[in-house]
Amino acid sequence: MDDPVRQRVLEALRARTMEAGELAREVGVQPSRLSYHLNRLKEAELVTAVRRGNHIQYELNASILDETIMWLVSLRERGGVRQPAECRAERMRMVRRIQGES
């Protein structure tokens, strides 16, 4: 992931859950810009939004990161051997999810 704002968001949420206003201050961006990046990260399933009463808390979705790490390790162990088309397509979906693409 090469977007510095999304990297900072993930780093901030690694430490703890936060509401959008607090997260915007922590990351150093305007709330409207943060909203765009949070939506991209939610689409990629890297961040989840949890409603607690009248507040929405944002959390890092560590399970998708774990899945991606396991996939990368298995790819390295296989020595980059080409897989059937459906496996390549699944890998591309994972990469796009991590990069925050639709």
TrEMBL record:
Alphabetized SMART domains for the sequence: HTH_ARSR (SM00418)
Keyword line: DNA-binding, Transcription, Transcription regulation
Record InterPro entries: ArsR-like_HTH, HTH_ArsR_DNA-bd_dom, Metal_resp_trans_reg, WH-like_DNA-bd_sf, WH_DNA-bd_sf
Any one GO molecular-function label of the UniProt entry: DNA binding
Domain HTH arsR-type: 1-80
Domain of life: Bacteria
Organism name: Bifidobacterium pullorum subsp. saeculare
Name of the featured protein: Winged helix-turn-helix transcriptional regulator
Family annotation (CDD domains): HTH_ARSR
PANTHER family: ARSENICAL RESISTANCE OPERON REPRESSOR ARSR-RELATED (PTHR43132)
Pfam families: HTH_20 (PF12840)
NCBIfam families given in the database record: HTH_metalloreg
